Amino acid sequence: MKRIVITPPSKVRADITLPSSKSICNRALVINALAGGKTRIENLSDCDDTRVMVRALSEMPDTIDIGAAGTAMRFLTAYLSVNEGTRTLTGTERMLQRPIGILAEALRTMGADVEYIGREGYPPLRITGHTLTNGETSLPGNVSSQYISALLMIGPALKNGLKLTLTGDIVSHPYIDLTLQLMRAFGAKAGWTSENQLTVEPHPYEAPSSYDVESDWSAASYWYEICALMPEAEIELPRLYRKSPQGDSKAAHLFASLGVETRYEAGRAILRKCGTPVSRMEYDFIDQPDLAQTFVVTCAFLGIPFRFDGLQSLKIKETDRMAALITEMRKLGYVLTETDGRILSWDGTRCAPDPHPCIDTYEDHRMALAFAPACIPLGELPVNNPHVVSKSYPHYWDDLCQAGFGIREEEA
């Protein structure tokens, strides 16, 4: 096991080049493949999830191992269903524990040939692709938006287009809208026809010559966290825009409540510590679940009690993030409470911290990314298995060093 110890600088003045949005990259890659692969995608991410997608789409081997890339598992399940050939789609042990049944069954109702090789409703899958003639199906609106996006993106490849009905409450609207925006950028005719119905016309994609991917707002959130926890900070982040289709761009508004202002100039966001944080924070993260870990750590170390709702999807991420947050925050002296499997709260209750705490990362990139800034109030913080950041932000530790943080390796 590898371990690093992170130490903070006294202040931060930094210009950081973030990874590009993997949410946009992975959608653009699938859409471009469906459009014939003619578009040059600029600023493509070098993270694990995107590299897995690039390799799968370019090589199309008989067995595609996507590792821990949940986005790739969902998007490729749909993509392979409309592309000729029989392929097996598999991943890590954790990936084989993450449900895929809702998407697979929806595809089956459309005529797709999707088989479970092992446990019913879970990967690995054997998929035989062919033209799908039934373009009508439905999904619960409260499932992962990646299921919905996976179906939408193959819509133009269906003989009769797609008519997708979402039942019940619809969550993660921003990610659905992001998918629609990207599809339209590639010439698709797709959109909402009512508050719970989406339609994609059987109109082929028309590939633009190039497509530029903006920086990742999820990755930006960790620099907002650093700004909030640091006594003095000013951080510039290129390719971040006020009007972004990424749902996690909400981070700028939320961090304003925690004393971080955002100024947009010349295609970049400039973060600065100013103002007084709120005394308590309540928010429903149903549309931004990937920001939850960032705000849990930030609020606790600012001494701000919180109640965060809409976190039910955290249980089926790379790890059970609810349980992981409770365990790791207790090591640092904070007692969190989970309610109804969807609410995480802290009322200010403290406990004795571990005498020599070390953060475990649970094979989850966002555990490492969100906890690293806690070294600022703590003085130093050991983190186990720091390599997990490669999933979404491979050069995170290098960027911290550039900003003045110290990082040394230790024997675990």
Topology:
Elements: E1 2-7, E2 12-15, H1 22-34, E3 40-42, H2 48-59, E4 63-65, H3 70-81, E5 85-90, H4 101-109, E6 113-116, E7 125-129, E8 136-140, H5 145-154, E9 162-167, H6 173-185, E10 190-194, E11 197-200, E12 210-212, H7 217-229, E13 233-238, H8 250-256, E14 260-265, E15 268-273, E16 281-284, H9 292-301, E17 306-309, H10 321-331, E18 337-339, E19 343-346, H11 365-371, H12 375-378, E20 381-384, H13 396-402, E21 406-411
Parallel strand pairs: 2-13, 3-12, 4-5, 8-9, 16-17
Antiparallel strand pairs: 1-20, 1-21, 5-7, 6-7, 9-11, 10-11, 13-15, 14-15, 17-19, 18-19
Describe the protein in words.
This protein is α/β, with parallel strands linked by helices. The protein has two domains: 2-19 and 214-411, UDP-n-acetylglucosamine1-carboxyvinyl-transferase, Chain (Alpha-beta prism), CATH 3.65.10.10; 22-212, Enolpyruvate transferase domain (UDP-n-acetylglucosamine1-carboxyvinyl-transferase, Chain, Alpha-beta prism), CATH 3.65.10.10. It contains 13 helices and 21 strands. The strands form six sheets. Strands 2-13-15-14 form a four-stranded mixed beta sheet, with helices on one face. Helix 1 packs parallel to helix 2, helix 1 crosses helix 6 and helix 2 (48-59) runs parallel beside helix 3 (70-81). The protein is globular.
